[in-house]
Amino acid sequence: LLRIGREKMSKKVVNEYLKKGAVVFGVDGSVSLMLPSNALENDDFSLEQLQKAVGGQIEFYPLLVNGCYVIVNEEGLLDGLPFNWNFYEYSKKRVKVVGAVVLVPARYIK
Q1: For residue 5, with 0-12 CB atoms within 10 Å meaning exposed, 13-18 middle and 19 or more buried, which class applies?
Q2: In principle, which of 49, 75, 77, 103 could form an S-S bond with 23, CB 3.0–4.6 Å?
Q3: CA angle at residue 73 from 14 to 79, to 5 degrees?
Q4: Residue 42 burial (CB < 10 Å; 0-12/13-18/19+)?
């Protein structure tokens, strides 16, 4: 995982990251690039890698954002995870989710 840090999220940086892999939006305002863990074998993200990024079982949000899949923690609400304002702003206030969010380009989902 490569971190930008806690600077203000830049859509330009996020879009550059999406050309290389997936983007993790932290609830602390961080935005990180996530590359497939098994990039030498194929270009897929492992289930374990996605689970680690969201901190639990994964769930696909039923709406694509900029042609990308939104992956969240399946039990985030039950676990009392904080609202992800960072991703809410990126999604133009369309996606209300809690916990870390992984934005995965469709080319990685088969």
Answers
A1: exposed
A2: 103
A3: 130
A4: exposed
Exposed, middle or buried by CB within 10 Å (0-12, 13-18, 19+), for 84? buried
Tokens describing residue 56:
């639990």
Tens digits of pLDDT across the chain (110 residues): 444 444 456 888 899 999 999 999 999 988 999 998 765 556 788 899 999 999 999 999 999 999 999 999 999 999 999 999 999 999 998 899 999 999 999 988 87
Residues belonging to the chain: 110
What is the identity of the amino acid at 33?
A: L
Cβ contact 103:70 at 8 Å = yes
* Placement of tokens 């209300």 in the chain: 96
10: which 2 tokens?
């830049």
- Which amino acid is it at 88? Y
